[in-house]
């Protein structure tokens, strides 16, 4: 799947040896990472390029959906074309029957906006599901770290670190009507690789991804109407040790003593 259209377009056109790429340029041509200029919607080569790429992808993959991206635009290049205080896309451009919208910002608010408009949604809220958060930033010479007495978010735009408890606590259909909740297809966690590689991959993903999976598949509420924190802790701790035994470098969530004494490490007995 080709992701990141339009803001991460330059890297794809470079890989495809298509240069000059129809990307935006100027004072601030970058998206979040260097070298990822936007596809310019006014450039005459943009749409022929997209047609060729999408045609080739459709021939290679049997998938019925394409992730079109569209995140992290620098608004100055789109203010006269796509971005305004109110974006009113024509319904025929985004037919509800074939369109799924994925939300990564503004948590429940954006999920409600999507579903109240009749679209299906996938939730990837950065406030809960971004596993790279809480590790600072990859940019150097950043004076924002010079905060005496005010640590802020530690230099991570989406800080703090997303603990397994915070992930498990998030109810992606909270505040939605029964009809709107049915339009939420599920969730997706994200681990962006600016500061992650194979040396830390296991610990960044596990066991938090397993914790997320349980919340998606089984919910985070028990039969009594209470959150299942206590039993989830014991279950996740045991699962973490099973993963380690299988060679997965999952990070610990409790001291080993807690595993051998179930329930004894709970704050409330």
From TrEMBL:
The UniProt record lists the EC number as 3.2.1.52
Keyword annotations from UniProtKB, A to Z:
Hydrolase, Signal
What does UniProt list as catalytic? 72 (proton donor)
In what residue span(s) does the Glycoside hydrolase family 20 catalytic domain sit? 31-79, 86-219
Catalytic activity of the protein: Hydrolysis of terminal non-reducing N-acetyl-D-hexosamine residues in N-acetyl-beta-D-hexosaminides
Q: Which Pfam families match?
A: Glyco_hydro_20
- Gene3D superfamilies linked: Glycosidases
Task: Give one GO biological process term.
Answer: carbohydrate metabolic process
Molecular function (GO) terms for this protein are: beta-N-acetylhexosaminidase activity
* Gene Ontology CC: one annotated term: membrane
Chain coiled-coil ranges: none
- The enzyme's first-digit EC class, named in words, is hydrolase
Please state which protein family the record places this protein in.
Answer: Belongs to the glycosyl hydrolase 20 family.
Q: What protein am I looking at?
A: beta-N-acetylhexosaminidase
Q: Which organism is it from?
A: Amborella trichopoda
């Amino acid at each position: 799947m080709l992701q990141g259209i339009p803001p991460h377009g330059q890297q794809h056109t470079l890989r495809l040896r298509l240069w000059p790429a129809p990307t935006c340029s100027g004072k601030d041509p970058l998206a979040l990472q260097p070298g990822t200029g936007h596809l310019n919607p006014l450039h005459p080569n943009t749409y022929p390029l997209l047609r060729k790429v999408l045609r080739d992808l459709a021939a290679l993959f049997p998938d019925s959906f394409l992730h079109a991206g569209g995140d992290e635009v620098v608004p100055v290049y789109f203010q006269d074309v796509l971005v305004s205080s109110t974006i009113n896309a024509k319904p025929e451009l985004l037919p509800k029957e074939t369109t799924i919208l994925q939300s990564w910002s503004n948590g429940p608010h954006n999920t409600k906006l999507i579903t109240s408009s009749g679209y299906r949604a996938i939730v990837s809220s950065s406030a809960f599901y971004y596993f790279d958060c809480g590790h600072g930033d990859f940019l150097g010479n950043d004076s924002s770290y010079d905060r005496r007495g005010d640590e802020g978010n530690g230099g991570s735009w989406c800080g703090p670190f997303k603990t397994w408890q915070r992930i498990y606590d998030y109810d992606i259909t909270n505040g939605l009507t029964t009809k709107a909740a049915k339009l939420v297809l599920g969730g997706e966690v994200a681990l962006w690789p600016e500061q992650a590689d194979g040396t830390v991959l296991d610990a960044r993903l596990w066991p938090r991804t397993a914790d997320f999976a349980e919340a998606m598949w089984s919910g985070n509420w028990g039969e009594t109407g209470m959150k299942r924190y206590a039993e989830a802790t014991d279950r996740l701790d045991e699962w973490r040790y099973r993963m380690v035994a299988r060679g997965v470098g999952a990070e610990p969530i409790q001291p080993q003593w807690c595993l051998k004494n179930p329930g004894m490490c709970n704050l409330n007995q």
